[in-house]
C-alpha cells in the first residue's frame, strides 16, 4: 500500500510535466549569487524544479468575475497555493495545463499579497506567461457604457494623495474642486514631488492593441432591457450606445468614488500624472480597486526574471456608470444607492466574450507569435523607471518615500 501511494503521488507530479514539458533553463536559474563583498548576498529566484508553465493566466478579483471563466472553459484541475486569499485558495487549470485561472481577492492589499504569493511559488514558472487581468469596474460616460470592455495602456493609482474635508478648505481655497492634492505640494494642480513608485504604470501598447483587435471578433452582451433603458438617460453618445471595445485607461483606488465632482478632479489628476498632451492622450474611462497593486507585484518579479512585464493586459468591463445622468444630477447619493440600473450581468458575461479571443489566440499562435514575446514600442514600467527605459510621464526626479 505504501509503495502504491508513493507511485500515485509521483504520477500526480509527473502528469503536469508531461502535459507541459519544461523549457530549457537559462542562467537565471541560479539560486544564489555572491558578489565581491562577502556580506552582500543576492538571491536569484530561478525555478529549476517548476512543474506548471501556463501559457496564459486569467486574473480575476472575486467570485463574480471568476465564475464566468470557470463555467465557459474546461478548468478541470485545481491546485491549492499557500498565501492566496483565504476565500480563493486554489488556482484552476484547463485539461492540458496551458490556461490557468487565478483569483486575488478584492482590494489593493489582497491583490498585492495574492499575486506575490503566486509568482514566488516554486511550482510555477511564469517567465513566458501572459497575464490577462480581467475584472469589472465603473465607467466614464463620455467613453463607455454598461457592458463595454476597456483595455488600458496606463493604470493610475489615485488614492496616494492628501485629502481634506470640504468644510476645511472651501473658505480659504474656494477655487478647489475637491479636497485632494498630491504629496509634497500644496494645491491640486501641481505634480507631486514625493512618490511611492506605484502611482503610474504603462503597459505594452502593441500587446494591448492586439488584444483589442481580437476582442472585437467576439459578440458582447447588450444587457437587460433596464440596462438599455438606463443608457438613454445620458447625453453622451458613448453612454447611450451599445457596449463596445474601447482603448482607454484605468484608475486604481480602494476608495469607491462616484459623482461628477470627484470624476472631474481625478480625470485632470490622471492627465497630469501621465503628462498627457494633445499628441499623447491619456483617456480615463474606468475605475477599479486592484490593478496598480497587481502591477507592482508583477514589476518586482520581472526584476528577477520570474515574469515578463511586457506580457500583461488589463481589461475592465463596465458594470456601472461613475457619474449620474442629468435626471439624477441633484441626487448623486440616491442615484448610486437606490436607482435600478439593470444589474451587472452584461459586464460579467463580457469578461469572457471580450477576453476569451485573446486567450485562445495565445494558445493557437504560441509558436509563431507569442512564445518569444510581442515587443513594445512604447515605454513600459512604473513612474520610477525601475525596469529601465525612458518614461514618457513623470518628472526628472522625485523625493522617494
UniProtKB/TrEMBL annotation:
The keyword Transport applies. Keywords: Signal, Transport. It holds the Pfam family NUP. InterPro entries: Pur_nuclsid_perm. Residues 1-19 form the signal peptide. The keyword Transport applies. It comes from the Eukaryota. One of its GO terms (biological process) is transmembrane transport. Nucleoside permease that transports adenosine and guanosine. Belongs to the NUP family. This is Purine nucleoside permease.
